[in-house]
Amino acid sequence: MKQIALYGKGGIGKSTTSANLSAALSDRGLNIMQIGCDPKHDSTRMLMHGKWIPTVLDLVRERGDKAISVDEVVFTGYNGIRCVEAGGPEPGVGCAGRGIIATFQLLERLDALYGDVVLYDVLGDVVCGGFAMPMRESYAREVYLVTSGELMSLYAANNICKAIQRLSRRSRCTCALGGVICNSANISGEKELVGAYARRIGSRLISYIPRDNIVRVAEVNKQTVIEYAPDSPQADVYRHLAEDIFENDTMTIPIPMETDELENLALEYV
Ligand code: ADP
Ligand code: MG
User: Fold this and answer.
1) Cβ(254)–Cβ(147) under 8 Å?
2) Ligand 1 pocket by Cβ (under 6 Å)
């Protein structure tokens, strides 16, 4: 079982990339599970054709952990992909990472964590204990950073690198970085910048995903690009990424950059 996590700043394109990646992998005949680990709980929506599935945290809050069955938290979407949303706290109270912790405990107890690929879509703005859990507890063995060329998303990516590096010093933790995905924000020099960043941290740019309106068109039609426009160039990009990730066996422990170094690097590519 391959256990992959996509980490990145909020709004950078993690869920779009994750859902298309899952769809492309499932089209290869693989058994896929996608787990949304973001309080926004919309990771699997396009795979579910627009349906908002109940979150684990909401169910646990309502009924406690013991009374929940697999069918209440694992939903079947496009091509048989099993979809789960961890959920998040009610605004103003609680810890955002709790949904993730509750989700892993429940899925473990229900024996529901299986498949050829389990893909975690994780918010990486704050790499607190909860959000680091997929890596810390070695659920996610391969981490992919999703970033654009914008500094804010590179800062977030760099923070995730710091978490991986720190966690790698623990003997129990087996997570490592599989590569960097540049989801384009359409700014000049960004492919080169993100490529240079990936090299500087000891990794590589595994994919450059163009900004394309077909993503929005597919989204308003409540589908992934893979399903809505399988013959589009954008679908090809996601299929290539799926192949590269599926075959990737080069993992590294990243060496994060200092903030001023990162800012100087960005200056070279404006
Ligand atoms: P995240 O999960 O990181 O918060 P989303 O995947 O929800 O981000 O993406 C945020 C918005 O950006 C969505 O409306 C999505 O349609 C759009 N988007 C993401 N990637 C692309 C892309 N490559 N081209 C065009 N729009 C994109
Ligand atoms: Mg998301």
Assistant:
1) no
2) 8, 10-16, 183, 209, 211-212, 215-216, 219
